Each structure stands twice: as structure tokens, then as C-alpha cells.
Amino acid sequence: MLTKGHYMQTEILQALRSLAPKIYQAIKKGDTSYTEGYNPTADRQLAIDLAVDALIFETLMGLKSVGGVMSEEREEAHYKDLGDFLVAFDPLDGSSVVGANFLVGSIFSIYARTPLGFKDSQIGQKVQMAAYILYGAKLELVISIDKQVQHELYDEYQQIWVKKGDLKLQEKGKNIAPGGSWQYFTQEYKAFLDHFFKQGYRLRYSGSMVADVHHLLTREGGIFCYPSTYDAPQGKLRKLFEVYPLAFIVENAGGEGSDGNTRLLNTSLEELHAKSPCFLGSKVEMQVLPTWQNHLKQS
User: Fold this and answer.
1) Is 226 marked as binding a ligand?
2) Residue 154 and residue 180 in one domain
3) Which residues form the Fructose-1-6-bisphosphatase class 1 C-terminal domain (predicted)?
């Protein structure tokens, strides 16, 4: 028997399925130029960032099941009197490469509402559902709930979502997606990357985190990494909008997520736009991380 919670989660999922084609069309026709504005973490905003943010925000705030919404593009969370779930989202991950027609996506994480709202420092341990939408040659949706990761493809001709099956991350992969700029990498991190390249791993980094993680999930596994760097000691990726949801999905697909020391979902949320180093991937590749981290501590 379905619970009230399941019905509410279904409402959110149906909203994402309805939103995806609208966002897809907005991206195709939208303005990819930069505005004069910046988001709360000082990234310059594109016009399409703001357009997609508004579309998602208004839709989620209109759902009976949603009591609070937090966007990467907004300073503060917004709450309603009623609604049992909180939704955090990155409206357009990888938007800096959308003008070059690269694969980009929207990322979502859903939580049961508590009195602390999004200011619960342990919210990463309370993800109930996560999802992302990919906008590329195909329109795709990946949903993780009940320890499964479901993959769906949109049929534009019939205007229906077609289930493609569950995603499982291979225990040992062939790809490495290292984020950041080489000039800011530590010597230890360069050695960590070299460990994989010497074994013939393929470089697969696009500038869109959600695209790179999706590639690992669907194309022979491996590791995505964006560490602490000289120019970003706390890491660059936002916990609430990118790290927690994608770590939740990767774990449920059989992989692991770490900040280099701690399981990502166990890391505390110090403030709404807090950032973190991020390593996501297949189990064999992730097992290399503690060895590298121990070396780093000794250096």
C-alpha cells in the first residue's frame, strides 16, 4: 500500500517529467549570453540560468507536497506553510558550456521537511530522493529512490517517457573526469591522476558535472573528481545542489562518494551554499583515494 509520502514523491516526479521538455525547449531557444548578475557563490549568471531557475522554482512552489525550495541561483530558501518535502536544485549545471552546445542538466534533491528546513547541518544524511535531467542530443531523466537508479528517455514524437532500466555502476571503470585547472592542482593530486593515466584510463571531462557523472553511470564506470585546489581550498562544488544529490545517486548505483576523508553524505552543511571537495565513482577507483590521502597527510 502506498503511503502519503509515496504519493507526494510521485507528485514531484511527475512535475519533473512535465518540466523537462519545457526546459529543453527553453534551452534550445534561450539566450546563452552573460548577464551583469552573479549568483551567491560569485559565478556570473547567464540569461538562460535565470530563465530555467524561474521555471523550476515556480513549478515546485506550486506543488502541494513541497513546503520549501532552495536554488543554487538564490541567496535564501523559500518556504510555504504547508508541504512535507523540501527540494534543492541546480537549475542548469554546466551552463558555462551550454553556448557550445555541450550536454548540461538540472539536478534535484528531495528531503522530508523538518523544523530546521535547509539549515539542518546533517541534511546530507536525509536525502530521500534525487534526480537529474539531461539536455543534449536526447532528453533523459535519472531518478534515484528506494536504493535504485532509474533511467528514462523522452520520446519527442509520442511525448512520453520511456523507461530504459536501472543504472548500475561497474565496480572497476575505464574513465577519469578530473575537474579544475592543472595550474592549481597540488603535486599529490597530480600524482593521483597520473596513477590512473598510467593504467590507460580515458580522460572524460566536459565542464558539466552532471554530464560527466552520467557518463560514468552509463559508459563503463570510473571516477569523477574535483578536489581542494590552491584557488579553491574548500572545493568548488556545492553540497546542497550538486554534491549531495549526485553522491546519493552514485551510491545507489553501487558506487561511492567521498570528500577525500569522509563519505560525502555524512559531511555537514555549514551554510546553504557550502562547498566541498568531491570524489564520485566506481569502488575500485575510489579505493585508491585513501592511499593518496594518506600520502598527502605525510607530505
Assistant:
1) no
2) no
3) 169-292
